[in-house]
Amino acid sequence: MKFQNPQDIRVIKILPGVGKSKKLYKLNNRIGNVTIEINDSEQFDFSLKDYYGYQELEINSSVSKLRLTIKDRILGTHP
């Protein structure tokens, strides 16, 4: 994601799975670990907890370019 002007970003809120219901959240795969790269220079690694709800990833940076990469997933219970 690129911004026309740098943006001061304190946190990124993420819901690591299907947000429609707790049942669907557990049935489907969820995000486990992510890497956030800022301005092609800074890198932040995060491990997300496996619970139904938003999580805040703190970065506190002035951002012109942002890339979020999913490193692994938590498997759902869907057969």
The total strand number stands at 4
Taking all residues together, what is the mean pLDDT? 96
Based on CA atoms alone, the radius of gyration comes out at 14 Å
What does the largest sheet look like? 4 strands, antiparallel
CA-CA gap between termini:
35 Å
Shape: elongated
The helix/strand class is: mainly beta
Helices, by number, come to: 1
Low-confidence stretches: none
Strand order of the largest sheet: 1-4-2-3
Share of β-strand residues: over 45%
The topology string of helices and strands comes to EHEEE
Helix share bin: under 10%
Describe this structure in words.
The chain is mainly beta. It is built from 1 helix and 4 strands, in the order E-H-E-E-E. The chain has a 4-stranded antiparallel beta sheet, with no helix packed on it. Strand 2 (30-38) and strand 3 form a beta hairpin. It starts with a strand and ends in a 5-residue tail after the last strand.
